[in-house]
């Protein structure tokens, strides 16, 4: 089964090196298809990076929501929300050309400034909650669409396969040793390679296939974690909507919940933030 | 096998599978022909990878003919995977991969 996943910035550099080697090895320096491939891989990673940035802005918005409840920080909330709105639009435009979240969605929370500050704050919090919820309900269906996920996440088999191809080619030319991989694998069984190991591997197709599979599995491990982070982020966004609905129906704002949401979003954003942000 | 009109996700997955099959074909040819010139196979491999990655960046149009194109591409991909253990001749691999790239190109035309 084909699987998609993001790759880390380190893997992206490795992929570039692998494609450069494969190009040169096959007499295809300046191959236009290789350039197109790498440009598109870079573009997909930039989109994920912008998504991570948007999640980070959302986390800041929740933090500001907590401040709004604690000391009527309307200005701070509106500033954070404006950043979240801007980052959301930038991200959504990268996956849906020409898409723009309606301006009315981003209406600012009106400052109270009255005498009965508790009541005014309660109104402001409901107002703030509504603006965040409407944004979430705009973003979630787009993120949950399998087509969006396909556009954002790279195919793991193709990307890790190209890295593997360079490694296998280099080994088949006899310029590298499988020693480090053999020792890494053998350590769990208290086994160590010897001076004959590479000669044995070179003659044994089953061994080569097994070691290549270990190599691919190692490369896949990080990709799988990144894919899990994406899925977790969409689930986290979905879980926030009922919290907002409850808040707007009069339930009190729980600052511990706000703190937990902020922390979770920041953690996911950090895991997804694999390449340069714009 | 594709029956209903495929989505963007379906099409991109078919193109990715074709690109992966092209890479596996190169690897199979490398194993069977150490030291041989595989530049033509590599060119096809990267052409398939570029077609897939381009589709990632584009939206699918609504042409119903895409179903037949995807079926043909999936069939060619399956054929290559079936031949991985048996086909060794570079010229034959080149012919098979040229065909795969042509089919992938026809699928990519449904993206705008």
Q: What do you see in this structure?
A:
- The complex is a heterodimer of chains A (278) and B (112).
- Chain A is mainly α.
- Chain A has ten helices and two strands; from the N terminus they run βαααααβααααα.
- Chain A has a two-stranded antiparallel ribbon with strand order 1-2.
- Chain A starts with a strand and ends in a 6-residue tail after the last helix.
- Helix content of chain B is 71%, strand content 0%.
- Chain B contains four helices and no strands.
- At the A-B interface, helix 1, helix 2, helix 5, strand 2 and helix 6 of A face helix 1 and helix 2 of B.
Biggest interface between chains: A-B, 34 and 32 residues
Strand content of chain B: under 5%
First and last CA, distance of chain B: 24 Å
Assembly state of the chains shown: heterodimer
Instruction: Determine the fraction of residues in helical runs of chain A and give it as a percent range.
Output: over 70%
| N to C succession of SSEs of chain A | EHHHHHEHHHHH
- Give helix % range of chain B: over 70%
Shape of chain B: elongated
- Tell me the Rg of chain A in angstroms: 25 Å
Provide the spatial order of strands within the biggest beta sheet of chain A.
1-2
Helix and strand arrangement:
The complex is a heterodimer of chains A (278) and B (112).
Chain A: E1 4-5, H1 9-25, H2 32-71, H3 74-95, H4 117-144, H5 146-152, E2 154-155, H6 156-172, H7 179-187, H8 197-203, H9 205-248, H10 255-272
Antiparallel strand pairs in A: 1-2
Helix pairs in contact in A: 1-2, 1-6, 2-3, 2-4, 2-10, 3-4, 4-9, 6-9, 9-10
Chain B: H1 8-32, H2 39-56, H3 66-83, H4 90-108
Helix pairs in contact in B: 1-2, 1-3, 1-4, 2-4, 3-4
């Amino acid at each position: 089964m084909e699987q998609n996943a993001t790759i880390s910035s380190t893997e992206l550099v490795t992929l570039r090196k692998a494609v450069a080697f494969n190009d040169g090895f096959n007499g295809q320096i300046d191959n236009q298809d290789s350039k197109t491939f790498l440009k598109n891989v870079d573009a997909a990673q930039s989109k994920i990076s912008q998504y991570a940035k948007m999640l980070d802005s959302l986390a800041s918005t929740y933090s500001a929501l907590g401040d709004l409840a604690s000391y009527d920080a309307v200005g701070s909330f509106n500033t954070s929300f404006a950043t979240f709105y801007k980052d959301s639009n930038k991200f959504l435009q990268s996956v849906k050309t020409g898409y723009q979240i309606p301006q009315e969605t981003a209406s600012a929370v009106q400052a109270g400034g009255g005498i009965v500050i508790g009541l005014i704050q309660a109104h402001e919090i409901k107002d703030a909650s509504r603006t965040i919820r409407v944004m979430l309900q705009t973003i979630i269906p787009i993120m949950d669409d399998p087509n969006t996920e396909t556009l954002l996440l790279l195919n793991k088999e193709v990307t890790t396969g190209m890295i593997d191809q360079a490694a296998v080619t280099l080994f088949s030319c006899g310029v590298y040793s499988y020693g480090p991989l053999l020792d890494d694998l053998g350590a769990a069984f208290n086994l160590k390679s010897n001076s004959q190991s590479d000669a044995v591997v070179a003659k044994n197709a089953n061994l080569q296939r097994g070691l290549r599979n270990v190599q691919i599995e190692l490369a896949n491990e990080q990709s799988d974690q990144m894919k899990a982070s994406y899925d977790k982020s969409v689930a986290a966004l979905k879980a926030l909507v009922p919290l907002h609905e409850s808040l707007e129906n009069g339930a009190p704002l729980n600052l511990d919940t706000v703190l937990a949401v902020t922390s979770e979003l920041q953690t996911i954003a950090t895991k997804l933030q694999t390449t340069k942000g714009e | 096998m594709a029956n209903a009109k495929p989505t963007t996700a379906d099409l991109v997955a078919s193109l990715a599978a074709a690109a992966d099959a092209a890479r596996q074909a190169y690897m199979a040819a490398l194993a069977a022909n150490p030291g041989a010139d595989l530049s033509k196979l590599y060119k096809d491999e990267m052409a398939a990878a570029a077609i897939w990655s381009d589709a990632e960046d584009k939206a699918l149009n609504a042409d119903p003919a895409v179903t037949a194109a995807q079926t043909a591409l999936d069939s060619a991909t399956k054929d290559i995977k079936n031949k991985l253990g048996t086909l060794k001749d570079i010229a034959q691999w080149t012919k098979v991969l040229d065909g795969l790239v042509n089919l992938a190109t026809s699928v990519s035309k449904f993206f705008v």
